[in-house]
Amino acid sequence: MTDMTASSRAKPGHLLNSGFDSIFVFALPIFALLSALLVIRAPNLFPLVLAMDLWLFGYHHVIATYTRLCFDRESFRQHRFALFYLPPMVLAATFAVGLGFGIWTIVTVYLYWQWFHYARQSWGIAQIYRRKAGQTIAEPLWFSQGVFWLVPVWGILQRSAEQPSKFIGVEVWTFPVPMFFAHVVGALACIGVAAWVLLRVRMWRRGELPLMHTAYMVTHFVIFAAAYVLIEDITFGWLAINIWHNLQYLLFVWLFNNQKFRGGIDAKAPLLSRLSQTRNIAAYFMLTLVITVIAYAGVHYLMVDVMAVAVPVILFYQTVNFHHYIVDAMIWKARKKPIQKVLALSES
After folding, report:
1. Which residues, 6 or more positions from 161, have their beta carbon under 8 angstroms from its beta carbon?
2. How far is CA 61 from the centre of its chain?
3. Measuring CA to CA, how many Å separate 18 from each of 12, 25, 106, 135?
4. Which class for 259: exposed (0-12), middle (13-18), buried (19 or more C-beta within 10 A)?
5. pTM check: above 0.90
6. Mind giving me the DSSP string for 198-236?
7. Residue 60 to residue 246: CA distance in whole angstroms
8. What share of the chain is helix, strand, coil (3-state, %, to 5)?
9. Per-residue DSSP letters for 78-100?
10. What is the mean pLDDT of residues 31-58?
11. Half-sphere exposure of 267 (CA within 13 A, CB side)
C-alpha cells in the first residue's frame, strides 16, 4: 500500500477526544489571533498582554518541559545530561556571544531559532495527527511536508526582507533577503496550499478525508501566514504565534502525561501520575504554574533587585529558551517508539 492509495475509510483521528481536540486545533489559534488583534487596535495594551503571555503561558510552557525531565526517578536518570551538563554549556555560549558581540546578536538568533522551533513543533503535531488518522493518506508525504514548510519559510523570508530595526523592543539584525524573492516564495506557497486543498477536497468526496489532520494543517497555514505576513508589526505578529505555540505546548505535554499514566497511579512516579489523571487537570496546571512563578520571580529578584544587572537577565532568559529548544529536539520525536507507545500512534 503506497501513500497514493487510501487504505481505509477516514476517521476523525483525534489526539484525545472531540472536546480536547476542538480546543487544541481551533480555540488556541483563535485566541492567539484575537490577542494580536487586540494589541493592534490598542497598542497601549501590548505590555499587559505580553506580561500575561509570558507569565501564564511562556514561562509556564518552559517549566512544563521538566515534567518530562525530572518529575520521576526514571526520567531524572535518563535526562541527566539535559538537566546538569547542557544548561551551563548553553549559558556560557549565550553570555559569550551576547556580551562579546552585543545583545542584538542573541535577539537575532532568537528570532530565527524560535521561528524554526515553532514550525518544527507544529510539524511534529501534524505528523501525530496524520498517524492518528489510522490510514495511509492519499497524498505523498513529501508533498504534504513541502507545502507545510513553504508557508513558514515564506513568513521568515518576508520578515527578513522587511529589515525591521527592532524586535520586541530590542535591536535586531535580519538577513538581507530581496523582497522580490520573498514574494516568489510566497507565490509558490499559495500555489502549493491551493493544490493541497484540491487534494483534500478529492479525499472528502471519496469519504477519505482525515478530518483533524486536515483541520490542523489549515490552522498551521493560517497562524504562520498571519503572524509573519499579514500582521504588519513584527512584534505583534510574534505575539500571536508565541501565544499559540505556548498554549499548544502546555496542552500537548499534559496530554502526553495523561496518556502515559492512563492506567492509573504509578508507584514509580506517584506525584506526576496522580496529577496527570484527567480529574486532576486543574491541580496539574496550578502546580506547574506555581513552580513557574517561583522559579522566574526568584531569578528576576536575584538578578535585578539584588545584583542590579538588567542586561544579563535578558541573556539568562534566552539561555532558558535556547536550552528548551535543544531539549525539545531531544525528547519529542514522533518516530521514537516510547512516544508512539504512549500516544498510541499507527505506523502509517
Report:
1. 177, 178, 179, 181, 182
2. 9
3. 9, 10, 41, 19
4. middle
5. yes
6. HHHHHHHHTT---HHHHHHHHHHHHHHHIIIIISSSHHH
7. 8
8. 75, 0, 20
9. HTHIIIIIHHHHHHHHHHHHHHH
10. 97
11. 0
